[in-house]
Write a structure and sequence with these properties.
Structural class of chain A: alpha/beta
Number of strands of chain A: 6
Radius of gyration of chain A: 15 Å
Shape of chain A: globular
Largest interface: A-B, 58 and 56 residues
Oligomer: homodimer
Number of helices of chain A: 7
Helix content of chain A: 25-40%
Strand order of the largest sheet of chain A: 3-2-4-5-6
Chain lengths: ~190, ~190
Amino acid sequence: MPSSEIRITNPDWVHEVVDFHRPYPDDDARVRVAITLARENVSRNTGGPFGAAVFEADSGRLVGVGTNAVIRLNNSNAHAEIVALMMAEANLGSFTLRADGVPRHELFSSCEPCAMCLGATLWSGVTRLVFAATRDDATRLNFDEGPVFPESYEYLERRGITIERSQLRAEANEVFDLYSKRGGPIYNR
Amino acid sequence: MPSSEIRITNPDWVHEVVDFHRPYPDDDARVRVAITLARENVSRNTGGPFGAAVFEADSGRLVGVGTNAVIRLNNSNAHAEIVALMMAEANLGSFTLRADGVPRHELFSSCEPCAMCLGATLWSGVTRLVFAATRDDATRLNFDEGPVFPESYEYLERRGITIERSQLRAEANEVFDLYSKRGGPIYNR
């Protein structure tokens, strides 16, 4: 009998390192949540060096987080951004974060999203994407980012998504260095 | 307390319309599984007009199926292809369908994958992608397919993925017509 239910979870330690009860006032605070999740994911051996978080744009309320869980969950789709977006939508009880009467939402990622996650960003309804490390940084680590082109970003921008690059990039790269030093696996290379 | 677990399921009726115990010998039989899932998803009001299935290339063994579940599961990532790939990986107990000693796998979809699902196709490790309806067909229905370009396909092909287009395209378009006639919702437009 084939599998009939997939479960997607974050590691238990997530609630030790992020606080869902306080607002995160600015971009630095928000991208630092994503980078912290990436760093802890490496330190605690629960996955790849990637973290992501979804916030309400105006209030800074944290509505969903994700850590890379490809190997832990045996699921090639379980990138940090996908997990964070799923969690945020579950919390809202909605398949979109851009409904009438719903505050604007933003996705923060410790690294530039791959092709899959950039598509997911579009479908999620977030109005802004902020990331730290870049495609080049991930590629240096031998992670593939897939078919993302300048036109891909233009496509998102035409649909009202603002994109901010290289926020706290150096901090995110320290996580990559840590992963590299620990000999972390490069899946799907 | 925010959500801590996401569950991804197929509708219960899936086991009435696909048979996991017989092989599917050729492309027509395999793409028809994807189209049947799409059609039943519409007829039974469980989601959008999209279905997908993963097969072992040589044996024709069915290893995972998916139906569009964006609205049913409140999850913008729950496209048919993503669900089918997750189910296939769960059945194999592996985050990749392309490991040493593992038979080659193929993804069949009732429609050309969106940007997210094309990325997911790459990460899944399938060696072949076959789809029925095209991007133009989906766009005619007002579904957005996201940033997919000719270079996107070239990227996948360079990584050893063969792509076959417009297999039983007319049958898949009949499902779109049915969805349209029933006034099915166009989410994320």
